[in-house]
Design a protein that fits this description.
76% helix
């Protein structure tokens, strides 16, 4: 979930690091609050995370960033565009991802919880949900969404439609409409839709990602004035839908109406994800190097922090050591260890793989 951009897009790299920390906060708080004696010291951090869904804030920001970056990376005048795109995306995502799978296998074997071989094989594709196999780490589902978005972008690029704003707007409306239809059916009938929640949420997330591509065009401000008016109209309507929905659910919840389960969490998590993206993009002028560094290792931090957290919880819980501390202590220690591991994985696996992908695509171009 990271690209190397020029200095004009440093806010994007900073946002990646912040979004990753939101996800880490979510997972560490909800895990370590269950540790012996922690709840007695106060559950404010866990309650805050649960109510406002910090993890969802980070994930929505990630998806907006993908929409902002990915479509524009497919260049119109690049004859090898799809091939280059596929190679670079492959080397960007899969090497570190496969290492995380290997570490999950090792950790689960060590904890006497061996995984089903079919589940392992399915997870290596990053599309395990489509094979009705569980995610070896829960957050893998977001990478599946990313891959589907990449495929749609590549398909649109192949047919020379990726820069067709009207078509992208129609796709946003279709995806958003499908999502609302699924939720409305559940509300009207009173029975949950049989589709998995990940599949139900997918159209909405895709609409958010394509909306991110509109934000990129407006940010670049290279379009003609007539086209700008149409683009601005499309962007405004799409934002009113994609951001308006969680805001609407949040407001109705506050006045005592509950249209869907956990409407407050859905409203805060998704709307604040937009807020984080806008604030970071528009207000980050001079980005601290620490945030840029954190953004660079954000993908590894995102992938590997659950493993650090799982092992740390296991040792502390079973050895009955470091019990009874405040939740913040466990969150901070786990986060620091996760950042250290993420840096190692980035330096040894992720960064060399990215360079390899770029070198291969340069050979193709030459």
């Amino acid at each position: 979930m990271s690209n190397h951009l020029n200095h004009r897009f440093e806010p994007i790299d900073a946002l990646r690091g912040i979004a990753a920390l939101f996800v880490v906060w979510q997972h560490t708080s909800e895990t370590f609050v269950k540790h012996i004696g922690v709840a007695e010291q106060g559950t404010f951090l866990a309650d805050l995370t649960k109510d406002f869904d910090f993890g969802r804030i980070g994930i929505i920001c990630f998806f907006l960033i993908s929409g902002f970056v990915i479509p524009s990376s497919l260049k119109i005048n690049d004859t090898s565009g799809i091939k280059n795109f596929a190679i670079r995306r492959f080397f960007r995502l899969y090497p570190a991802y496969w290492v995380s799978i290997l570490m999950v296998i090792m950790v689960d074997y060590y904890l006497n919880n061996p995984l089903n071989p079919v589940t392992i094989v399915a997870n290596t594709t990053m599309l395990q949900g489509l094979f009705q196999q569980p995610h070896m780490i829960g957050l893998y589902w977001t990478l599946q969404v990313e891959l589907i978005f990449y495929f749609i972008c590549a398909l649109l690029f192949y047919f020379n439609k990726l820069r067709n704003d009207k078509l992208i707007f129609i796709l946003i409306l279709i995806f958003f409409g499908i999502f609302v239809l699924l939720q409305t059916m559940s509300f009207i009938t009173g029975t949950p839709v049989s589709l998995h929640k990940e599949i139900q949420l997918l159209p909405y997330l895709l609409s958010i990602m394509f909306l991110g591509s509109f934000y990129r065009q407006i940010y670049d401000n290279k379009s003609k004035s007539i086209h700008n008016k149409m683009l601005n109209r499309f962007t405004l309507i799409s934002t009113l839908l994609c951001l308006g929905l969680p805001v609407f659910l949040l407001i109705t919840n506050l006045i005592g109406l509950e249209f869907v389960n956990d409407s407050f969490r859905f409203g805060t998590g998704h709307s604040l994800g937009f807020v984080l993206f806008f604030v970071g993009l528009l207000m980050f002028k001079k980005v601290p190097k620490t945030l840029l560094w954190l953004g660079a290792i954000s993908y590894s931090l995102y992938l590997f922090h659950p493993l650090v957290m799982k092992l740390m919880f296991h040792y502390i819980y079973n050895a009955k050591i470091l019990t009874g501390y405040h939740l913040s202590f466990y969150m901070i220690v786990s986060t620091i260890l996760s950042i250290l591991l993420a840096f190692i994985i980035y330096a040894l696996i992720e960064k060399p793989a990215i360079k390899k992908g770029h070198s291969l695509t340069k050979r193709i171009q030459n």
